[in-house]
Amino acid sequence: MELVRVTEAAALSSAAWTGKGLKNEADDAATEAMRRLFDTIPMTGTVVIGEGEIDEAPMLYIGEKLGMGSGPELDIAVDPLEGTTTVAEGTAGAMTVLAAADKGNLLHAPDMYMAKIAAGPDCRGVIDIDKSVEDNIRAVAKAKNKNISDVTVTIIKRERSSEIIEQVRALGARIVMFENGDVGAAINTCFDWTGIDILMGIGGAPEGVIAAAGIKALEGDFQGRLLPRNDKEHARCLEMGVDPEKKLELSDLVSGDDAIFAATAVTDGELMKGVQYKSWFAETSSVVMRAKSGTVRFINSRHSLKKKPNMVMDK
Which CDD domains does this entry report, sorted A to Z (predicted)? Predict the structure, then answer.
């Protein structure tokens, strides 16, 4: 429950920039608040996948130490603001997210692209990133006892998704596209009320690791493969002990029997309502999941703006 305070702080700080067209400012606000709150938690944490390398990010970079320096040793994966453009434009689906697990249990990899496929509990062991789009959709349809035309695939709206989109349409399945934020899109496959059956496409590796932690708690399935764009990224994978050609199973991304996923909505999404400002307080909606127990908690919180002046600033 301590970790949700971190995502709440980041959401409260970044939500002040909603719709103002300033994505960098929104991201900076979330990152600074998240970094500040981490140091109030009794843990010895290390960012294993996050905002980039030490020379690319001022904070929450790969290898950075977090926490009070006491308590459990944890791996941390962070995305202080999933959907910077979403917040800047004031559209739906932005959230602040993180994952934590015992030291050595989260994938330690560079910040780069990752091919991904995800599905809910009834499709566990059914999807395979090495198989074709058609094979995976047919497998999901069979597992869910659906017609192919009733299977809904969620795909990020990018030029790089065009081939997948064409194949899904040719097969006759349904598509729900999203503009930004594939952590939320992947998690949606595990909640029936979202109507999403499977996620396919290419997104960020940090988001992949974080989503995998949540999906592990929800007993769904997730696979990925790192996609280095040049020799430098390829070499960095090998330097960090990751084979970029390897199919990453859920157990490769999040090993061990436990992991914690925490997220707080910044703008409204499928699972949670975004930050709402009232006269003297703000309301947040969060979700916390733990793999070991399988517990999923949706948390609605009220925050006094007078007592938390550093989290919410009048911009």
Answer: FBPase_glpX
